[in-house]
Write a structure and sequence with these properties.
By secondary structure, the chain is an alpha+beta fold. It is built from 5 helices and 3 strands, in the order βαβαβααα. A 3-stranded antiparallel β-sheet has the order 1-3-2. The longest helix is centred in the C-terminal third of the chain and has 61 residues.
Length: 187
């Protein structure tokens, strides 16, 4: 008995998708490009023709696969296929968060606070000197929070990268094992 599966892919993904599904024992039965008419407005004075010109544009390709569920190693191939497609392989964002602008302002403010603090204490203005010390302490706190956040985010990024690589490697292993199973069944 046969089972069937239809999927839609972009024309650029057609060949890779067919090869992938063949690794799980699927056989391509039909491939159809689905078109629609797109309308492009053009300037009549430049083109010397009507204002509307049609252009045929490919939207997607529909692939229809079949697989015999009595084929050798069917259940093992199906198990590997289910594992392969169980969770999408997504690469996480690798951007470290933190406002560089805010940290630049905090740095400038800290430098200015140090200068005012030194000038205020040397001039005998303790109140203004204390205010400068408080602003400096806030800047140091902001810098500390920024560095801690960056370090934590860096660890998360590294963890996500390892998980992505492990999943990608597992997918390679699954495809290799499925191809072995298919080769065994053809011997």
């Amino acid at each position: 008995m046969k089972e069937y599966k239809s999927i839609k892919v972009s024309p650029q993904e057609e060949v890779d998708t067919i090869e992938l599904y063949q690794s799980f024992g699927w056989v391509i039965e039909d491939s159809r490009e689905v078109y629609c008419q797109g309308y492009i407005m053009i300037d009549r004075t430049v083109a010397n023709e009507s204002g509307v010109k049609t252009q045929r544009v490919t939207n997607y390709v529909t692939l229809r696969f079949a697989r015999d569920n009595t084929m050798p190693n069917y259940y093992e191939l199906k198990k590997y296929e289910d594992e392969y497609f169980a969770e999408p392989l997504r690469k996480q964002a690798n951007k470290l968060f933190g406002s560089k602008t805010m940290m630049t302002i905090a740095t400038i403010l800290a430098i200015v606070s140090i200068i005012f603090c030194v000038l205020s204490f040397s001039a005998g203005n303790v109140g203004f000197g204390m205010l400068s010390l408080i602003v400096l302490a806030v800047c140091i706190g902001l810098w500390t929070a920024f560095i801690v956040t960056r370090n934590k985010r860096g660890k998360v990024i590294e963890h996500n990268r390892r998980i992505f690589e492990e999943k990608a490697q597992r997918r390679v292993e699954i495809i290799a094992r499925c191809r072995e199973l298919l080769d065994e069944s053809h011997c």
